Please model this.
Amino acid sequence: MTNGSKDIFKSDGKNAIYDGIEHAPSGGKALLDPTDTVMLLLDHQSGLFQNVKDIPVAELRANVTALARLATLCEIPVITTASVPDGPNGPLMPELQEAAPHAVYVPRKGEVNAWDNALFVKTVRETGRKTLIMAGVWTNVCVMFPALDAKAAGFKVYAVIDASGDPSELASRTTLARFTQAGIIPTSANAVICEVHRTWNRPDAAQLAELYTIVSPNYRAVMESYRKAQEVVDAKQTKVGPARSALRHAGRRRAATRAKSRVGIRQRKGS
Model:
């Protein structure tokens, strides 16, 4: 095991896993490199959410939150921005600041396209990273425009479709086609987590597992069934059935409670 999540990957361009185990040298070359990645979360605003029709808004918000928590856990820079937040587009979703307190917010001066804002582009470039994970509302505007410009500027761009939203299914399909034609990589929140995760042989594995329960709630059932299976194995190793093991633990708790009560009675009598 390594000492921390940042020990898993190195900024050497190899995107290899450094966990003390020998891995195939070609593994990871086609995947996201966490050491070269910036997360851009664009215009996830309460007013714009009301026009999203291609994904349930609760699911969209959950996926965005999972991405923000992933970035915090794995020390990936996050840049947020909003389109006229004091107008009908509304404020950014509060979960963002809670999940990624290290996020840098860049205000805009009315620009629809975040890449038209000089400070936004400067902030992205100052990270020194060349891989951009973008998500936002609307996908066909607030993600599409900066994604196209960033791609033209030499960045590798991923668009997280299920952490973004469009006003219709048709708009979403058109957006996806335009992304692929432009060389922008469409992906999902779950795929991003997996690409950054890469191995369970890391000290923050349990925290990463919790992120999967956000983007795929049924994954919690997988975790619960695993824990129950472990309890059964542990019980067999001690040659006690699960039910008897539970009764034994309950008996011990009751005995401890009675002992505490007797001590309390003696103390009161002594006083």
Notes: The chain has a mean pLDDT of 89. The CA atoms of residues 22 and 246 lie 41 Å apart.
